């Protein structure tokens, strides 16, 4: 069995007013945490919604989780900003799962838009769906939970659809093509 490295870069934990808590409770160094978390392979999604002016807004997210099948429920993690305001105001959003050729869309919604690029969007169930996405989930918010500098937004899925195309994958802070080779044949 391979031994894992113990992280020597631990920080003492304190509560919200700065009082140091029990010494056994420590937090991982944020840089080490980011590097370790990047080793978890995820798909790439773009959340879309309509803002207060009825305009399409979106953000790239790899923090998309299916929570339950009955009823179909999902969770996303969103920082304060335009997307958070849009979801909070309408109580609705769409999750668009990107195919392997969706890197430019991901970058566009990660605040790196190409000059003059406007993503192709179609309205489905009153929500903006990115054309060419490999799956989409129309979501109705049922709960929001603030955690540190993000809000976990839990929603029931009112409709969804998919097509069988290879996904865009994110691993080790880089994009990768396809899902890899199945090992459970």
Low-confidence stretches: 1-7
The CA-CA distance between the termini, in Å, is 25 Å
| Class from secondary-structure proportions | mainly beta
The pLDDT mean sits at 86
How many β strands by DSSP? Answer: 14
CATH superfamily of the domain at 60-170: Electron Transport, Fmn-binding Protein, Chain A
Strand content: 35-45%
H/E series: EEHEEEEEHEHEEEEEE
What can you see in these coordinates?
By secondary structure, the protein is mainly β. The chain has a domain of 111 residues: Pnp Oxidase, Chain A, CATH 2.30.110. 13% of the residues lie in helices and 44% in strands. It is built from three helices and 14 strands. Strand 13 and strand 14 form a beta hairpin.
Attribute tags:
3 helices, 3-stranded antiparallel sheet, Pnp Oxidase, Chain A, mainly beta, 13% helix, 185 residues
Briefly say what this structure is:
The chain has 185 residues and is mainly beta. It has three helices and 14 strands.
Question: How are the SSEs ordered, and which strands pair?
Answer:
Elements: E1 10-12, E2 26-28, H1 30-37, E3 42-43, E4 45-50, E5 56-61, E6 64-69, E7 72-78, H2 82-90, E8 92-97, H3 103-109, E9 121-124, E10 127-130, E11 135-147, E12 150-162, E13 168-171, E14 174-177
Antiparallel strand pairs: 1-2, 3-13, 4-5, 4-8, 6-7, 7-12, 8-11, 9-10, 11-12, 13-14
């Amino acid at each position: 069995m391979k031994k894992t490295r113990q992280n020597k870069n631990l920080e003492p934990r304190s509560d919200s007013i700065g009082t140091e808590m029990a010494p056994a409770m420590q937090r991982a160094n944020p840089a080490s945490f980011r590097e370790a978390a990047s080793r978890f392979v995820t798909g790439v999604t773009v959340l879309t919604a309509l803002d207060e002016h009825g305009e399409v807004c979106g953000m790239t997210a790899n923090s998309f989780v299916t929570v339950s099948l009955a009823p179909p429920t999902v969770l996303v993690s969103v920082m304060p900003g335009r997307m958070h305001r849009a979801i909070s105001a309408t109580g609705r959003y769409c999750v668009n799962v990107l195919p392997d050729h969706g890197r430019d869309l991901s970058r566009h919604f990660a605040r790196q838009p190409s000059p003059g690029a406007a993503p192709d969007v179609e309205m489905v169930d009153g929500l903006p769906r990115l054309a060419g996405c490999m799956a989409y989930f129309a979501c109705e918010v049922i709960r929001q939970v603030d955690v540190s500098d993000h809000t976990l937004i839990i929603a029931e899925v009112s409709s969804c659809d998919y097509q069988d195309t290879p996904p865009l994958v994110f691993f080790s802070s880089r994009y990768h093509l396809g899902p890899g080779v199945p090992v459970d044949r």
